[in-house]
Design goal:
Elements lengths: L1 H31 L3 H5 L7 E5 L2 E4 L1 H7 L1 H7 L18
Antiparallel strand pairs: 1-2
């Protein structure tokens, strides 16, 4: 039975890491292709984006207005790249 629990925990970790990679991918592709539907799909309705201690945006509308919409106005072409995403699990 222990082997099954270990395998389930390992599978959970792999799925979490893949989901993290997909999230970053969708953020980048949504922003770079100016696809608001894809870009917004990565955020929860109550998301909070803190860019600094005095710049905190709550909710998709505020995040979009402060983030990607300003980028789309400022840059005619964008190309995001992300790397080094990891998932760490607490020690048991």
């Amino acid at each position: 039975m222990r082997t099954l629990q270990v395998l389930a925990a390992r599978l959970d970790r792999v799925e979490a890491e893949l989901a993290l990679h997909r999230l970053a991918h969708d953020y980048c592709v949504g922003a770079d292709h100016r696809d608001p539907v894809r870009w917004e799909a990565i955020w929860t309705a109550d998301a909070v984006w803190e860019t600094s201690s005095d710049q905190i945006f709550t909710g998709i509308e505020a995040i979009r207005a402060a983030g990607v919409e300003q980028q789309w106005q400022a840059f005619p072409i964008m190309q995001h790249a992300t790397a080094n995403h990891t998932v760490e699990t607490p020690s048991s």
